[in-house]
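Fold this: Intestinal mucin-like protein
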Amino acid sequence: MLCLFQKGVEKEKACKIGSMRIHILHKGCRSTREVDMPYCEGSCNTYTKYSEKASTMQQSCSCCQESRSSNRTVDLKCLNGDMVPYTYVHVEECSCAKTACTHPAGRLTRKRRSFTLRRSVDRI
């Protein structure tokens, strides 16, 4: 299993492949044994910074995702005793891939208010 390291991201937090063992459940059927299920996790070199040349903020976004995978098939046992084949995606390699930069769902953009604080002076 190979994972590509991105410059600027700490190695421990960089995009990498992880793995867990699970039973696959699908439409009331379950794998008779645990299946090795690799996944991608970690950080990529994503940033927002001011560009003096463009006189604006510029963003670069990327996410950790599968860059190589294959289909694997496992038999699932159903409640009625039937065995059915089920094909799933098996991650083999992870890397950082460019993606669109978006704001989190439901987050409202607020305009910054400018105001002056007035100091209250007690009159004697």
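The chain has one domain: 2-99. The first strand starts at residue 2 and ends at 3.
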